[in-house]
Specification:
It is a single chain. With about 240 residues, the protein is α+β, with helices and mostly antiparallel strands. The chain is about 35% helix and about 15% strand. The protein has a four-stranded mixed sheet.
């Protein structure tokens, strides 16, 4: 006598349950994206971000407190650059962009101590080794640089350098730091006279710590006595004033 066929197990197969859970999560995810895209209030948007961070354990994660070179996959700097880029494209960077600052959370773990990221070298001028005087050639070079920088909304870094050779005994400068600072000041004043808004300018002094040449040729070492002018990837807060 043949055996009766086995009845299939009751209920749906296990893979159907897993597939259904996955589709439900995806649906919730896309609903969340659609909902957040409609938020116009910055305070509400920031409250949602902070709630998500607390819910997913950001404050308890080891990578948020370990010192050194450990970095999370999505760093605060990268997110800030993306946000700034989006705002700039929305209102046209060349015509001022969007100067609204991105909201800052209550649990910031990263503090910027030096500007990094992409930058455009606006130009370089060279000085006599122990001098901060801008000669006629440097003035003409600054005129060219100023024409390149005008009409842009980004900040401008004036970065002062010196050679590592000792200053003359009769030098009016106490050390290389003071000499590099004076070179920045002289460059800033010329750029302002040429029409650059002073609110865009940032002075940075590195003295002899970033040499171009490290050999012994005195002619090549003169390349280290310079000021570099960089167009930063950061919008200046110009307010309502005109340059």
């Amino acid at each position: 006598m043949p055996l009766p066929p086995e009845e299939p197990p009751k209920g749906a197969p296990e893979w159907v349950v897993t597939y259904g859970d996955m589709m439900s999560l995806l649906l919730c995810f896309f609903i969340l994206l659609a909902s957040m895209s409609e938020i116009r209030n910055k305070e509400q948007f920031q409250m949602i971000l902070e709630a998500l961070r607390r819910q997913f354990g950001y404050e308890r994660s080891k990578t948020s407190v370990i010192p050194g070179s450990v970095r999370p996959l999505n760093t605060t700097m990268k997110l800030a650059i993306l946000a700034a880029t989006g705002r700039a494209r929305r209102l046209d960077t060349m015509n001022g962009g969007d100067r609204i600052r991105a909201p800052v959370g209550d649990f910031a773990r990263v503090q910027s101590i030096r500007r990094t990221g992409d930058r455009t070298l606006g130009g370089r001028i060279r000085f006599e080794e122990a001098s901060a005087q801008i000669d006629s050639d440097n003035f003409q070079r600054l005129e060219e640089i100023a024409r390149f920088l005008q009409g842009k909304p980004q900040k401008i870094e004036i970065r002062g350098h010196t050679s590592s050779r000792p200053l003359p005994a009769d030098s009016p400068f106490k050390d290389h730091w003071q000499l590099a600072y004076e070179r920045c000041i002289q460059t800033k004043e010329v750029l302002v006279r040429l029409g650059i808004n002073p609110k865009r300018l940032v002075l940075t002094v590195v003295a002899d710590n970033e040499p171009i040449e490290k050999g012994e040729d005195p002619l090549k070492l003169q390349e280290n006595s310079r000021v570099e002018i960089h167009l930063l990837n950061e919008l200046a807060d110009l307010g309502d004033t005109k340059p």
